[in-house]
Design brief:
The complex is a heterodimer of chains A (90) and B (234). Chain A is of the alpha+beta class and 90 residues long. Chain A is 31% helix and 33% strand. Chain B is α/β, with parallel strands linked by helices. In chain B, 23% of the residues lie in helices and 25% in strands. The chains are: A alpha+beta (90), B alpha/beta (234). At the A-B interface, helix 1 of A face loops of B.
Chain lengths: 90, 234
């Protein structure tokens, strides 16, 4: 069994107006940073996974995302998995 | 008629919902989120407003997996009447009993004020005591009440008459100004296709006494009583 750290990024679906992102974008522009735009605000979730391999770990996290961690009606998500090196304290 | 009101950790409108039931002469019982069975004689289940589980992760996302929710979903699938108010509406959407989702208000503010609702369908167990187009004055109090769904879902629920209440001006026009949260099509309350599960963001249970500013919310409880009495007669 290996231990992985999954970093899950959750954002509102593109079709849904991200009002938080818009408000922050306006704030950036009022701070004279016109080069910055298309701000999107989401959530970052980290979770440790015990699994024999990356594919299994990915499947487990995917299942958790679909069941609980995200709502597919309004959110998209992205999973990044990193295997924790053996013997290195967390 | 007997109404069961579920108390989740963080519910804060459960006592008001029980009051709304009793003010119309019905019986109300408190149900607990850890209950694994429902009383056999409840006619209606209410999921009340509040901040179940602190609204952590997403509103309603954790409450949806409470032990009692298995029974509530079974009750609804058997045709039982289920009403979700505010946080209860969010829980119903998370549980898949109602389509769509409720997201952060368009203006990013918690909105707490009276709104006007236009009854869009009076042929439901929740509105049968009032006429189509009736205007109700009822308070809203939420930060995440913007009703959102894919366009094809909106088209379907509109075509099916599943939109039960819409935010409108006091004279009944569905203007952008009368929409407190940016909900699509000014939607304030919807029901499922079968018509036995309804969710709404405004709080009818907080508008059950003229002394508190409005008694228009009584119409929901009176409709449920009328519907249940009529069903028993049949």
């Amino acid at each position: 069994m290996k231990t992985y750290t999954a970093s899950i990024t959750v954002t509102l679906r593109r079709a849904i107006l991200d009002v938080q992102g818009k408000a922050v974008e306006h704030a950036l522009h009022s701070l004279h940073m016109p080069a910055l735009g298309s701000v999107r605000i989401g959530k970052h979730i980290e979770v440790e996974v015990q699994a024999p391999d990356t594919d299994t770990a990915n499947d487990l996290v995917m299942d958790a995302c679909k069941k609980l961690l995200t709502n597919p009606v309004m959110e998209d998500f992205h999973i990044a998995l990193v295997e924790k090196a053996a013997g290195v304290p967390a | 008629m007997k109404i069961g009101v579920v108390t989740f950790p963080g519910s804060n409108c459960d006592a008001d919902a029980r009051y709304g039931a009793t003010v119309t002469g019905n019986e109300a019982v408190q149900l607990w989120h850890k209950d694994e069975t429902l009383p056999i004689d409840v006619d209606v289940i209410i999921l009340p407003g509040g901040f179940s589980y602190g609204d952590y992760l997403r509103t309603g996302a954790i409450a949806r997996f409470s032990p009692i929710m298995n029974e509530v979903i079974r009750f609804a699938n058997d045709g039982g009447l289920v009403l979700g108010i505010c946080n209860g509406f969010q829980i119903l959407c998370e549980s898949g009993l109602l389509p769509g989702a409720l997201i952060r208000n368009e203006n990013l503010r918690f909105v707490c004020k009276d709104v006007h609702l236009r009854v869009e369908n009076s042929a439901t167990p929740f509105t049968c005591a009032v006429k189509l187009g009736t205007m109700l004055r009822v308070p809203v109090a939420h930060g995440e009440g913007r009703y959102t769904a894919p366009q094809e879902t909106i088209d379907r629920i509109e075509a099916n008459g599943q939109v039960v209440y819409r935010y409108a001006s006091p004279t009944g026009e569905t203007t952008a100004d009368s929409n407190p949260n940016g909900s699509m099509n000014n939607i304030a309350g919807i029901m499922n296709e079968r018509g036995n599960v309804m969710g709404l963001m405004p709080h009818p249970e907080r508008a059950c006494e003229p002394l508190l500013g409005s008694a228009d919310g009584v119409s929901v409880f009176a409709s449920l009583a009328l519907h249940v009495a009529h069903s028993i007669l049949i």
